[in-house]
Amino acid sequence: MKMSKLFVQTLRDFPQDAEAMSHKLLVRAGYIKKLANGIYTYLPLMNRVISKIEQITREELNKAGAQELSMPFVQPAELWKRSGRWGAYGKELLRMKDRHDVELCLGPTHEEVITSVVDGIVTSYRQLPLNLYQFQLKFRDEIRPRFGLLRSREFIMKDGYSFHGSQESLDEEYQNMWRAYKRIFERCGLETKAVQSDSGAIGGKVSHEFMVLTETQTGEDDVFYCKHCDYSANSNHCTSILNDEITTTRFDKEELIDTPNVKTIKDLAEFLKVSENNILKSVLYIADSKPVMVMIRGDKEVEETKLLNVLCANEIRPATDDEVLEYTCCVPGFVTCFGLENKIKILYDKSIAGMKNFVTGANIKDKHKVGVNFKSDLNFVDVSLSKAGEKCPVCGQPLFVTRGIEVGNIFQLGTKYSEPMNVCYTDEKGENKPFIMGCYGIGITRTASAAIEKHHDEYGIIWPLAIAPYHCVVVPVNIQEPDQKEAAYTIYEKLQKNGVEVVLDDRDDRAGVKFKDSDLIGFPFRITVGKAIKEGKVEFKMRSSKEFDVITIEEAIKRVTEEVLKLNED
RNA sequence: CGGGAUGUAGCGCAGCUUGGUAGCGCACCUCGCUUGGGACGAGGGGGUCGCAGGUUCAAAUCCUGUCAUCCCGACCA
Prior knowledge:
globular, nine-stranded mixed β-sheet, five-stranded mixed β-sheet, RNA-binding, alpha+beta
C-alpha cells in the first residue's frame, strides 16, 4: 500500500471530546470516525486490526475444536419472549417493529438464536459436545457509551456457545476455552488475568472475566487479587475476609443518647469518638418495588450486584428520603433495624458478625443508641464491597485492587436457555434432556482498544506486531531524490514479495511529517531511506525502541521478514 | 434519569456581554520555494452559525422550545 493512496487522515491535535488514550489515538491516527454517540466507522487501518484479532481468535478456536458460523444481527422478539428475557433484559435491548408490526430487536448477544439454531439439528447425545462461534456486530443501547471503542453501543464481538450432555463435559470445555483465551490474548500482545465475576444478565453460575489490568481510570472494573495465591475477583464477586479490628466500644450498657443533626456515619463517629466500624449502618433499598433494609458495618459499602443476586431481584435502587420515612417512620440518618423485624425484610451483611456494644440508630430523629448487641443469632449474607487490604478468602493474605478492562468472559450457562425454550436432545436412555450450555465472549474492538491502552507513548500507538494494521513502513526522506526513491521502491516490492504487509510513504512531504505519522499510526518497523543510501545503507527502527541501526538494504529486509515469519509459527 | 457544560468550515476555536457585511489556526486547491522530526511566502475554495419559533428595520448575538454531543453521578455482558 502506498501512503498517498491510503484512506487515512491523521490529525495534528488530539480530539477534544476524548478521554481515554486509546480513544484519542484511534481518532487522531485515523483509525475510527464517529457517526453517532457510541457508533463508529472502522476506517481501513482499524478494519485491518480487527481482521488480525479475528484471525488469531479464529485460528485458536478452530484449533480448540470449535466451528464458525454467522447468525443474524436482527432478532425476533418471539425468541426473547420464549427465554423470558424480552421483559428482563432492560433498555440496553434496542427494540423495534417492522412494517407488519412484528416486534424485533438488535442483537446484544445470541444465546436465544444459537439455541434455536441447534434445535432440531442436534437431537442425539452422539452429536455432543458441540462448540459454535461467530464474529458478529452487537448493539447494546448503553446508558452512557464512553472511551471510544472501550464502551461503544455498536461493537464487534466473538461469541461462542457450547452444548453438552453432562456437567463434566461442560467443565472440560470451560477449561478448554480458558486455555484458548489465554493463547488468543497472549498472541495479541496482552497479558490477562482471569477473575471470578458475576454473570449478570447472561445468567449462569460459574463465570470468569479476562481482564487486562490497567491501573488507569480507563479500566472500568475494580479487580481484587491476591499476590500469594491465584485468587482474583471482580468487585461484584469478591468475598474478602475482614481484618480483626476493634469490634467493641466503651459503651457497655445500652443507652439512648441525643445526637442532634448527626446524620452521617463520619459525623457520628466523630461525635461519639468511636471508629466507623463500631457503628451499625442501615441502608434501605427498593428491590422490585419492595423495601429491603441492609444492615452493614459503618465503614463498609453495599455492593449492589451482590445484593441483587441475594434477593434474586430484577432491579434494585437505594430508597429515597421519602421512602425511608414511609417504611421506617424515621428520617434518614437515625434508622435501625430494631423494631422493624416484622415490618420489612432485613438482610444482615457478614461484616457485622462479631460487633459488640455497637452504635446504631434509634428510629427517632436526633437520637442514636449506644452499647447495643444482637440478642439472637443472625443469618448473614455477603452484600458488601471488598476493600484493598482485606484478606484473601483462599489463603488469608491481604488483597490488592487495580483497575481492569474486561476483554473476554466465559460462562457456564447450564440449562438457563435450553429449558425455558424447550430445546432438548435424546440421551443414552432415550430420555429428552435440555442441553447444558456454556457461553464464551471476546470483545474484538475492545481488545484492540485495550492493546492501545497498554501499548503507546507520547508519540502514538505501539502495536504488537501480530495485530498491527501493517508490519512495516518504508520512508524515503526525500522522494524527489532519485536514489532514495528507487531504493525505497525496491525495498517495498521485495518486502511485499516476502509476505510482509508494508506501506510505502511515497508522499512528497517533509521527513518530519512522515515520521510523525508513522509514529502516530504505530507501524512496528520503519525502514528509512536517506542520505546513507549512497553507501547502500538504510535505517532500521522498531517503533518500540528509541534506537535505530544503520544497515544494508538486504539486512533490513531480512530482519523485517524474519520477524514477520516468526508470527506465522504461532 | 439527576447535576454541569457545549453546539459557528473536515478538525481545534474566537465572535455573543453592548444586535448592524461571519472570522482565526490546522487541513484542502494553485504557484513559488523547501526536504532527516508536523517549514515558509503569495493567492484561492469551503459555513442553512444544531434545528424551529419569537422579539426587532435588522439576530451567530436577545427570548422560548427542541434536538444533539460531552463531563460527573446513578446504571451496565
